[in-house]
């Protein structure tokens, strides 16, 4: 009897300690969990039940004179004749930082090679890099120079060699990404308004150019308008945690949900949409520094809605497999592996292995195994496995 009571007390002690441990963990994590859950519930309720985004339009509308301060920057590097050809299928702007010359060279040698696109794919695509001024350029300390050449002079030499840098006189930083977005739409409006499509992308993205060109040619032949595709975020709440890179204070954005927008890693719009976004930037407050959210605000103001495309990646890399390459459009997070991925994704054997009834059945099974997983990949949707 004594041993039995002793065993019971020991079990009770273990249960008590376990309960205390669980409560401690919950208390530590509760605030973050509570904020995350509550913010998403509020956001989705606002997005799908209330949906008064017209109030957002009103709150961001400012006089043109005030809006001009977000675009009235001097060009330091420019190429007004870049789009001199009459038939330009796509103007592709790559958002880059001044120091990322290695990434720019990798893009020039792979998916962003204009000569390859013209000779192998038979279309004209213009690839331009958008950037601001490096922080070191304003101070120009001795350690920022290479062989006595300042940072800006390095960019000038790079541009003389390649002729594809577009730079304005604002500080190149995360908090000025919206200025870089406005630069792109204003440059297209004044320099390349006849391009049938416009794309913006990060400099660590991979674009399967043969697939993208084929897709856009098909869309162009159909005469599409109001066209905006990418990885769509719907009902996304602003992040109020000051520890986050994407922190947005209430004073900057007072609403509980953002308008629908596409991930800034890469998206495509048609010419008419690009012109509407340009017009929107002339009267909207661009102080919010998350550029893809500002794009959503502009689109909402002019009545344009994004369309989700399953082969546009979010913030993650897509799996490495020939069955993925067959329909891939974009994948995010590629720097060192971009050359290997380009060779593998554009290899002629990809189409051979994935064609025919057996190839399609095989790839459906492979994509189900790669994409339909219980945890979040932030790449392609599971439904991409069945397309």
Automatic annotation (TrEMBL):
Q: What class of enzyme is it?
A: transferase
Biological process GO annotation list? protein O-linked glycosylation; sphingolipid biosynthetic process
Q: Extract the Gene3D superfamilies matched here.
A: 3.90.550.50
The record's GO molecular-function terms, alphabetically, read: lactosylceramide 1,3-N-acetyl-beta-D-glucosaminyltransferase activity
Q: Name one GO cellular component term.
A: Golgi membrane
Q: In which pathway does it act?
A: Protein modification; protein glycosylation
Signal peptide range in chain numbering: 1-31
Membrane protein topology class: Single-pass type II membrane protein
Q: Which reaction does it catalyse?
A: a neolactoside nLc4Cer(d18:1(4E)) + UDP-N-acetyl-alpha-D-glucosamine = a neolactoside IV(3)-beta-GlcNAc-nLc4Cer(d18:1(4E)) + UDP + H(+); a beta-D-Gal-(1->4)-beta-D-Glc-(1<->1)-Cer(d18:1(4E)) + UDP-N-acetyl-alpha-D-glucosamine = a beta-D-GlcNAc-(1->3)-beta-D-Gal-(1->4)-beta-D-Glc-(1<->1)-Cer(d18:1(4E)) + UDP + H(+)
Q: Which UniProt keywords apply?
A: Glycoprotein, Glycosyltransferase, Golgi apparatus, Membrane, Signal, Signal-anchor, Transferase, Transmembrane, Transmembrane helix
Q: What is this protein called?
A: Hexosyltransferase
User: To which species is this protein native?
Assistant: Scophthalmus maximus (Turbot)
Q: What is the lineage of its organism?
A: Eukaryota, Metazoa, Chordata, Craniata, Vertebrata
Q: Which gene encodes it?
A: b3gnt5b
């Amino acid at each position: 009897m004594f041993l039995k009571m002793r065993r019971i007390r020991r079990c009770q002690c273990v249960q008590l300690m376990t309960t205390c441990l669980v409560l401690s963990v919950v208390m530590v994590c509760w605030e973050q969990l509570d904020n995350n859950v509550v913010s998403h519930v509020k956001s989705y309720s606002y997005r799908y039940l209330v949906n008064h985004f017209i109030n957002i339009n009103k709150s961001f509308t400012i006089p043109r004179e005030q809006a001009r301060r977000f675009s009235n920057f001097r060009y330091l590097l420019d190429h007004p004749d870049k789009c001199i050809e009459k038939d330009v299928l796509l103007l592709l702007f790559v958002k880059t930082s001044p120091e990322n010359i290695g990434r720019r060279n990798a893009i020039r040698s792979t998916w962003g090679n204009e000569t390859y696109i013209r000779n192998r794919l038979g279309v004209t695509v213009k690839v331009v890099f958008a950037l601001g001024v490096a922080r070191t350029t304003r101070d120009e300390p001795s350690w920022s120079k290479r062989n006595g050449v300042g940072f800006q002079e390095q960019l000038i030499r790079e541009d003389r060699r390649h002729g594809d840098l577009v730079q304005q006189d604002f500080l190149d930083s995360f908090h000025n990404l919206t200025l870089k977005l406005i630069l792109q739409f204003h440059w297209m409006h004044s320099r390349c308004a006849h391009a049938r499509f416009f794309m913006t992308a990060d400099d660590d993205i991979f674009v399967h150019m043969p697939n993208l060109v084929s897709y856009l040619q098909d869309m162009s032949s159909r005469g599409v308008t109001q066209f905006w595709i990418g990885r769509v975020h719907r009902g996304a709440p602003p992040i109020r945690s000051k520890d986050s890179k994407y922190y947005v204070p209430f004073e900057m954005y007072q609403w509980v949900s953002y308008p629908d927008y596409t991930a800034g890693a890469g998206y495509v719009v048609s010419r008419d949409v690009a012109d509407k976004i340009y017009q929107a930037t002339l009267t909207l407050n661009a102080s919010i520094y998350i550029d893809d959210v500002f794009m959503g605000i502009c689109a909402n103001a002019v009545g344009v809605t994004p369309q989700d495309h399953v082969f546009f990646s979010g913030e993650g890399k897509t799996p490495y497999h020939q069955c993925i390459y067959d329909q891939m459009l974009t994948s995010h997070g590629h720097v060192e592996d971009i050359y290997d991925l380009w060779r593998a994704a554009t290899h002629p054997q990809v189409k051979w292995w994935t064609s025919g009834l057996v190839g399609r059945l095989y790839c459906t099974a492979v994509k189900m195994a790669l994409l339909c997983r219980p945890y979040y990949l932030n790449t392609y949707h599971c439904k991409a496995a069945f397309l």
